[in-house]
Write a structure and sequence with these properties.
Elements: E1 4-8, H1 11-15, E2 18-22, E3 25-29, E4 35-39, E5 45-49, H2 57-69, E6 76-79, E7 86-94, E8 106-108, E9 110-113, E10 120-123, E11 133-136, E12 139-140, E13 147-149, E14 155-158, E15 169-175, E16 178-182, E17 190-193, E18 196-198, E19 203-206
Parallel strand pairs: 1-6
Antiparallel strand pairs: 2-5, 3-4, 5-19, 6-16, 7-15, 8-14, 9-10, 11-12, 11-15, 13-14, 16-19, 17-18
Length: 209
């Protein structure tokens, strides 16, 4: 498994990224002309080009240093997709405890993308613990007292005696990252003026967890 470092590139560079989710589908055309879809992935893999966010020589030097620290494709890092990085009162499950000591303790953080025909649920594995809010039946719970949050799996675990009771909704609000890596071992820098330059492409790709 690729090691994922708990570090980010500069947020100003992240904001300029261009990209999004990609599925893998094989379309087979029958002799009649009818088409059949072989969906190879049930979850998309996201990828971006972050070169568009580089606006200065300082940005360029920052990315080069960051790239060297990750050893190209060898090590992953955390990326904030500014088009999709928040959870707002997202329902991640319903309690089933009778007295707070039994029943389900662990709940995976998820995000639902609504659709009238085929809604999609995404597992969130890299929540940002800073400012993260967990509520049970509308009441905000306290980190470490009522629950713990694993920032490498996205699992919330309620402490002994504080498991959500039957029928109580568990909701979360906060931000999350995407685990990614560089999709190249070579940065092609174009020198354009004294002590400055540009990078036409810096591709990063999501690491599936």
């Amino acid at each position: 498994m690729i090691t994922i470092d708990a570090v980010q590139i500069d947020e100003d560079i992240e904001r300029g990224a261009e990209g999004g989710p990609e599925f893998s589908t094989i379309i087979v055309t029958a002799a009649s002309g009818a088409e059949y879809a072989d969906q190879r992935w049930s979850h998309p893999r996201r990828k971006w080009n972050i070169a568009y966010g580089i606006q200065s020589n300082s940005d360029l030097q920052s990315i080069v240093a960051f790239f060297k620290a990750r050893a190209g494709r060898a090590r992953g890092f955390l990326f904030k997709d500014w088009m999709d990085y928040t959870l707002t009162d997202e329902n991640i499950g319903t309690g089933n405890s009778t007295d707070g000591t039994d029943g389900t303790a662990a709940f995976q953080i998820t995000k639902l993308y609504t659709d009238a025909v085929n809604p999609y649920t995404r597992n969130i594995t890299r929540p940002n613990a800073t400012g993260f809010v967990v509520k049970v039946d509308g009441t905000t719970k306290t980190l470490t007292t009522h629950y713990t949050i694993n920032t490498t799996t996205g699992v919330i675990t309620f402490t002994a005696g504080n498991r959500p009771l039957a029928g109580q909704a568990i909701t979360v609000t906060g931000e999350f990252f995407v685990p990614v890596r560089f999709d190249t071992d070579f940065l092609e820098i174009s020198a354009e003026w004294a002590q400055a330059g540009s990078l036409p492409d810096i591709d990063i790709i999501e690491l599936k967890e």
